[in-house]
């Protein structure tokens, strides 16, 4: 008993001593990248640097596997156990802000003036999240193939038109050297569909939802332009230019590298891997289907939970983490697009003249965010199914009508996703 | 009223308590919650308060109607036909997006049949649900008898006193212990349309006459492919149950049958089969329930596609509850599934009762 008392006393004394000496506030942080060693190393490095750089706050990290991350956040929010700082996928942010999981960053928007637009999570006029990087999609091609088929190299200023793009695909198919003209990644039945294919629909002049009011998809997802997109989309599959929804994931992974596909519609995160295997690969901008070249924007971003008692501390950390050197670190290690031009200059890949600099240009010039609305998480699923069904041969108009009805019904069920 | 259950049986209750507690917490409570959710507009994530909506979710799911489309006619009143000589009908949206017929708003075509100049179109406000229901019923109707029969056949084969028979038992049982997710991934490669194992084998056997089929990419073959794979995967489990049934049949009966000079078929028909009665009831009910719950294969292999040809009820319940964040809709499907399984199990019990 005596021993216990002594021990307890010592513990109390020790704790008391610590808090008196440092007066540190503990902050918790969640991150989606568990299992990725490189990513974990950089995040830990930033946290260590931050904890050493000042004595007011101490950040501790908990990582989750990406697949179960959103579920964990939802569960924690229901249980009232959200961390102070958390990261989130850009298009999901409005849903979480609307649900009251997040609070606006207590940092003036001017602080991030130099950041790519896709890295800023602005909902309802307020900045809720900020990304250290963005992602971009490009048309992967081989210089040799382009030359052989006699194709003009498209540029940011003068991208391919729809006709040029279709000519390129048909020429590739007619050459008889490829299983399919282009790999669109149809095997990846996930957010990839919305991220990669929604820009085609937008370039045709259609969209997922009315971007002014965000209250209906009528006339946007099933209007004339959208039906034109649907017919074109279906023709890619009926003309056997693209492997369909049953594409085997391994073929998607290595098909372009192995020369099975002439082109590949792929993200910058696969660029380094591809360059190592295909010496003359080049990254071309998205074709213009009539309303400008478009690609998706917004990747993972940091924000502060609504329940955080120390938002000013969390904001300090976010400001610290968004320094150019860390943006450059992430980019160098993972091939991501640094959020600022100055950070891009610090990297091998994205500096002017670097092999991936083209992606920085794509992101700055063509990126369009997915609809910034709490309903996006549902609308995205509806789009994924519609794009897959049309690819599989469903009637275009009826499918788009059905998708429109589904989105409108969901918006109605949620009282218009009004903010409170 | 005092029975052995209530009197002086504290130890028994104590032993049962953990099990009852778990069943209460993870099966019975969620069941009642599910029924409650299905009558509300419960969302997975939402700041809006949950409201009671009565049977709205069920109405939305079950609403179905038949509408008629008259063939398009030209100025002279002659029916227009397309290049293939088929009668042309106006688009369905002429009815479903017509302000004069607001009751059909938001409904989609499930299927149609044409008689003369009229197309009868069955439209439903939730076509995917109906397709899922139909597919699930097909799965059960095929899997239950076929899997039970194959499992019995295998059980009879391995119920012999041969050297090395345990090797066969192990082989047949192996797919059961492998995770269904892994099995599904492997079969995705087997079924691959480009250079899958199945296509290659069929081509080899037919000396190249066989045209490769995209098994999971073709709406006509996808469900069959998944059913075949499911039967293969779980057949070992039911084989073991049949086997245990076979081994409860007293050998003396077989000896007596042999002395009477009964043929193999007669032995099976009059000795083995009657002895397996209870096992048969168990196997049939278990397979039926498992077949109704088919999910992992769909999720890994097709995600309900192509063209909804592999949608099933449980897959849709999960898809709605978590994907679409519509817990109420997912719960309503689960309740309907529960009612169906309950009714079928009761019918099976009644049909196989002791007479």
Automatic annotation (TrEMBL), chain A:
Membrane-spanning residues: none
Pfam family, one: SBP_bac_8
GO process terms (BP): maltodextrin transmembrane transport; maltose transport
GO molecular function, one term: maltose binding
InterPro entries registered for this protein in UniProt: SBP (IPR006059)
Keywords from the named record: Signal, Transport
GO cellular component terms, semicolon-separated: ATP-binding cassette (ABC) transporter complex, substrate-binding subunit-containing
Signal peptide extent: 1-23
Family indicated by similarity: Belongs to the bacterial solute-binding protein 1 family.
Protein known as: Sugar-binding protein
Species this chain originates from: Thioclava dalianensis
From TrEMBL, chain B:
Annotated GO CC locations: plasma membrane
Domain ABC transmembrane type-1 intervals: 133-348
Record organism: Thioclava dalianensis
Name of the molecule in the record: Sugar ABC transporter permease
Key word Transport present: yes
Broad class of where this protein is predominantly found: membrane
Gene Ontology process terms (BP): transmembrane transport
Transmembrane segments: 12-33, 132-158, 170-191, 222-243, 279-298, 327-347
